[in-house]
Amino acid sequence: xxxxxxxxxxxxxxxxxxxxxxxxxxxxxxxxxxxxxxxxxxxxxxxxxxxxxxxxxxxxxxxxxxxxxxxxxxxxxxxxxxxxxxxxxxxxxxxxxxxxxxxxxxxxxxxxxxxxxxxxxxxxxxxxxxxxxxxxxxxxxxxxxxxxxxxxxxxxxxxxxxxxxxxxxxxxxxxxxxxxxxxxxxxxxxxxxxxxxxxxxxxxxxxxxxxxxxxxxxxxxxxxxxxxxxxxxxxxxxxxxxxxxxxxxxxxxxxxxxxxxxxxxxxxxxxxxxxxxxxxxxxxxxxxxxx
Amino acid sequence: xxxxxxxxxxxxxxxxxxxxxxxxxxxxxxxxxxxxxxxxxxxxxxxxxxxxxxxxxxxxxxxxxxxxxxxxxxxxxxxxxxxxxxxxxxxxxxxxxxxxxxxxxxxxxxxxxxxxxxxxxxxxxxxxxxxxxxxxxxxxxxxxxxxxxxxxxxxxxxxxxxxxxxxxxxxxxxxxxxxxxxxxxxxxxxxxxxxxxxxxxxxxxxxxxxxxxxxxxxxxxxxxxxxxxxxxxxxxxxxxxxxxxxxxxxxxxxxxxxxxxxxxxxxxxxxxxxxxxxxxxxxxxxxxxxxxxxxxxxxxxxxxxxxxxxxxxxxxxxxxxxxxxxxxxxxxxxxxxxxxxxxxxxxxxxxxxxxxxxxxxxxxxxxxxxxxxxxxxxxxxxxx
Lengths: 291, 384
Hints:
The structure holds two protein chains of two kinds.
Chain A: H1 2-32, H2 39-56, H3 61-84, H4 92-114, E1 129-132, E2 135-138, H5 139-161, H6 163-173, H7 175-180, H8 185-211, H9 217-232, H10 237-257, H11 263-277, H12 287-290
Helix pairs in contact in A: 1-5, 1-6, 1-8, 1-9, 1-10, 2-3, 2-8, 2-9, 3-8, 5-6, 5-8, 6-8, 9-10, 9-11, 10-11
Chain B: H1 5-26, E1 35-41, H2 48-67, E2 76-82, H3 87-98, E3 103-107, H4 112-125, E4 129-131, E5 146-148, H5 153-167, E6 173-178, H6 181-196, E7 203-207, H7 215-224, E8 228-232, H8 236-248, E9 254-257, H9 264-270, E10 278-281, H10 289-302, H11 308-327, H12 332-340, E11 343-346, E12 351-353, E13 363-370, E14 373-381
């Protein structure tokens, strides 16, 4: 029983990492109808920014986070201008290729600048975690779970209760109609990229104490997060969270009780089953409804 | 057309210089001509960094040999060809140098796959090639021209099993390995070795690379009741994640790992989670007086710490010089016999006793992570 509880907690912790990155996917997809394949690299950029601030420049942790929170929006804006904006009037395919290219560029640029050796970032809390009966609760996983909950709540309030959020929703549903109503579509998309880069970067800082800072840290996670957001129903915030958490638990339990070497396979097995039986995902709308 | 006359003069001078060089190459070797040793090594491509270290190690030895009067009264000279970090280009590089009849022996690549690639060409050329790859089959498939200057992988697992079982007296083994080529082949060799000692491990588990979480494996180790664990994990970050989660679950046992466990990166990432662990390593700067002296010279010359990429070429040049001297010839067959006759030579990697397969070393250093510092625990050598 203790072992099962431990596995479920760990699974939820890993799942919340997937969920946090999946949120970024969903945001940009909703605004532009495009999958951003560089989403995982946003996490890598955030984590490396923290390495530069706290290790290379020796700044205190809080100041590092503060400065990173200035760097990330600028990066998001630059990403929008360089990768998405020039192709905004083309179909989705060139944009997807463009994000793929950006991903390769970012990873190799970081490799050239920092080399292949992974680095470590200090955890947020001094304590490693707490032992509760037979279960060890890693403090970093607790922080990630808490952040995910807060971000989801904030996002919900923002999209459903504020004018800016509603304008962004309108943009994502029908760009032409939105611009006819006087919404500045380009600005809305710019804001989405800025927010998504900040969110992705924060995710990177949060997961760095667990999986360390390396060039490929984001892309390994992003693949699972992508699967999670399809399982949840692509474009749905709730779905991304539930899909991420479910995937984390399923692969951890699968590794423990079925096969460790097949661990990465479970995520994609679930994805396969969903694509076959319920392609719209857990919370996704049917294609016919959208038309 | 008008050209500045100085440019013409410069061109003429270059042509003359080139022409005389070509003439020189065609002439027979004289007594003071250098003895040429070819070196096929990556200077570009994904593993170019290691090639630089290899050249530095070899050059250090060549300087020492030449300062002491050379070999048979002639200085040694290194002829380097870039293998571009890939198999087909390694074959090209080797064949290019093999065409130079003045080259009497080679230093080959450090990676087993590239050595395998040039094996047919080496057999055809019939010249001794010193190698640093650790795949056991390289010297066991009837190719008489490979001479190995690092212990092969059979000894890695043998020393690990011997240290945990015979030296520390532990019998309940857990084995954790990466599911890639390195991890699975090392695991298979290790299990064979345990079987020879009559030991069946209490747990064997493979884990995928680049995973954010290894709790499932750590729990299995805990449940198995093992008192000693061998790991073959390829990447340092995977090793560090696993180590941390193992400690978080309160697992404390004797841990003997493959070499990646002692790297600076692994120690930085894992911190206290790796304290008290053991690892096998062929080169360690504090292992013996020769290694200590080599590490100091290397550090002084190149301002970077020595590692095995530089240490085996250093040994190879010295052993080769010794063999040429005792053969009194650079004839391939005589050189081969002299290399196989090298016994008890104290190199920086250990004591060389060449066997008939061409393996020079038959043991490993056991290192210990002593509160974050690497120290030597023991040297284990076998007679076969």
